[in-house]
Write a structure and sequence with these properties.
The chain is α+β, with helices and mostly antiparallel strands. The chain has helices spanning about 25-35, 55-65; strands at about 5-15, 20, 50, 70-75. It has 2 helices and 4 strands, in the order E-E-H-E-H-E. A 4-stranded mixed sheet has the order 3-2-1-4. A hairpin with a 4-residue loop joins strand 1 (about 5-15) and strand 2. The termini are far apart.
């Protein structure tokens, strides 16, 4: 049995929230399936999942990284704001 294909999600942040962006509906469903059980307050928006801020967002990403989720910065995230814990995650595609 082969390992599932990596799930690449894009992240964007603001002082008040962190979002994970899926490339399509299939990836979004995979992401939300991994979040079941403890992440009840995720935003149900098209292709976007809100994961809170600070420690909550970090813990969520730490939960996802060993489950095959790879993180990259969303194109909307300004280059000067692409720093911090996202780059330190196991699955980070440091872009």
């Amino acid at each position: 049995m082969s390992a599932p294909e990596a799930l690449v999600v894009a992240a964007s942040t603001s002082p008040r929230h962190t979002w994970l962006w899926a490339a399509n509906e299939t990836d979004l469903a995979r992401l939300r399936q991994l979040l079941v059980g403890g992440w009840d307050d995720i935003a149900e928006e098209p292709l976007v999942t809100g994961i809170g801020i600070g420690v909550d967002a970090y813990d969520t990403c730490m939960h996802l990284a060993p489950r095959g989720v790879v993180f990259e910065w969303h194109p909307s995230q300004h280059v000067l704001d692409r720093y911090g814990w996202l780059d330190d995650l196991v699955g980070a595609a440091n872009s």
